[in-house]
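wait is this the right file?? whatever heres the structure
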């Protein structure tokens, strides 16, 4: 993978950067988690120092090929401008004559942010024609969007056919940190997986049952594992379709740690009665919404004995405070572990640790959710392959 430092003299050149500005905003457009914007700064600052004309591009949310007002990148324009202390120009689209005009007016050290790439269906279709138009704006391409590099999309893959292409500093940093886990992990290596759907994380679980020293499962996905073992989970949502695959795994493996007690309630609001019980006692009318205090202790002791910890996915329905305790405990266990090289990733996971002000306590915070999971499962990421 060629990196931006190998791009030679970039002064005066138009550089198209693919970023991952897929941030979390609330209904009023307020940014809840700007980690991905902050993580993009090193490459942008590097290009500023190199006196280039900087064209930034990103997708945001899922507009599905149409212009959607609430999915414009203006909140990113504003936040990025604040962080850099300079004006960021905003393009009305990501391709077309108006955009070309704005690009041609750019002076060295100026930044133009293109509008949401996914307003065009051609982006997700990896359209060659769209990639050609996009690449026509610039002379050099830099991929700094680790979080989107598992996608075969035009601005990630096809674009590299038309421009000299390099990895940005963020992509390089992610690649180096995560490669360490794949190639040369410190041991004991513990992988903590939580969150919503086990189907999206099965491959990782299978791989790390082989590779890791410990696997910890929490969150809604642990309910499916409990259910597969014949343990009552009440009316918690279960992914029946993965049960056959789960049963092929050695669920009794001593490496595998699953909840021993749980927090359950009749509904998710936090208004109904909340009970803490050993697993197996969940009533038919109850949902498991968090790990219990005994489980927190067990998980904590596994983590404290580790040298490397990877974490993706919350331990419970953390959006309601009463069910966020397990996730908070996990965040503290990992960030307080003196011997651990810690890597975390995932949209909800990073948003959570950011909210609790713990984000600086981890060794590496990946900007990738799906991309991190695929990379760690040993898959080649199309965006990284395209740079080779
Ligand atoms: P990430 O974005 O960090 O990869 P996921 O997208 O896999 O994580 O899952 C996050 C979601 O999982 C959160 O919205 C959280 O509320 C939900 N979740 C975790 N545990 C539970 C649970 N026990 N019951 C319901 N939802 C849960
Ligand atoms: Mg998520």
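ok assuming it is, sequence goes like this
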């Amino acid at each position: 993978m060629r990196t931006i430092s190998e791009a030679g003299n970039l002064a005066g050149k138009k550089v198209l950067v693919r970023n991952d500005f897929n941030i979390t905003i609330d209904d009023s457009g307020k940014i809840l988690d700007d980690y991905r914007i902050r993580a993009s700064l090193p490459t942008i600052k590097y290009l500023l120092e190199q006196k280039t004309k900087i064209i930034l591009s990103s997708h945001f949310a899922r507009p599905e090929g149409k212009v959607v007002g609430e999915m414009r990148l203006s909140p990113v324009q504003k936040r990025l401008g604040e962080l850099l202390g300079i004006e960021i120009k905003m393009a009305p689209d990501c391709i077309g004559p108006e955009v070309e005009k704005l690009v041609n007016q750019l002076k060295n050290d100026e930044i133009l942010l293109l509008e949401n790439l996914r307003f065009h269906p051609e982006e997700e279709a990896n359209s060659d024609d769209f990639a050609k138009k996009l690449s026509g704006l610039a002379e050099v391409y830099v991929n700094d969007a680790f979080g989107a590099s598992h996608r075969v999309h035009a601005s990630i893959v096809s674009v590299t056919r038309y421009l000299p292409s390099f990895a940005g500093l963020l992509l390089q940093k992610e690649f180096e940190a995560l490669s360490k886990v794949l190639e040369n992990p410190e041991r004991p290596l513990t992988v903590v997986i939580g969150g919503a759907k086990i189907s999206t994380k099965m491959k990782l679980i299978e791989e790390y049952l082989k590779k890791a020293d410990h696997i910890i499962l929490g969150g809604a996905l642990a309910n499916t594992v409990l259910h597969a073992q014949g343990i009552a989970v009440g009316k918690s949502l279960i992914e029946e379709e993965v049960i056959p695959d789960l049963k092929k795994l050695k669920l009794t493996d001593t490496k595998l740690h699953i909840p021993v007690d749980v927090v359950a309630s009749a509904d998710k609001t936090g208004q109904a009665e909340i009970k803490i019980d050993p697993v197996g006692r969940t009533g038919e009318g109850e949902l498991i919404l968090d790990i219990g205090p005994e489980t927190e202790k067990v998980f904590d002791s596994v983590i404290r004995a580790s040298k490397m910890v990877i974490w993706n996915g919350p331990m419970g329905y953390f959006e309601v405070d009463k069910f966020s305790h397990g996730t908070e405990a996990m965040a503290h266990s990992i960030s307080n572990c003196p011997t651990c090289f810690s890597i975390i990733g995932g949209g909800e996971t990073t948003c959570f640790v950011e909210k609790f002000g713990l984000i600086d306590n981890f060794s590496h915070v990946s900007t990738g959710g799906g991309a991190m999971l695929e990379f760690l499962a040993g898959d080649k990421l199309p965006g990284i392959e395209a740079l080779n």
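The radius of gyration is 22 Å. so i think its the right one actually
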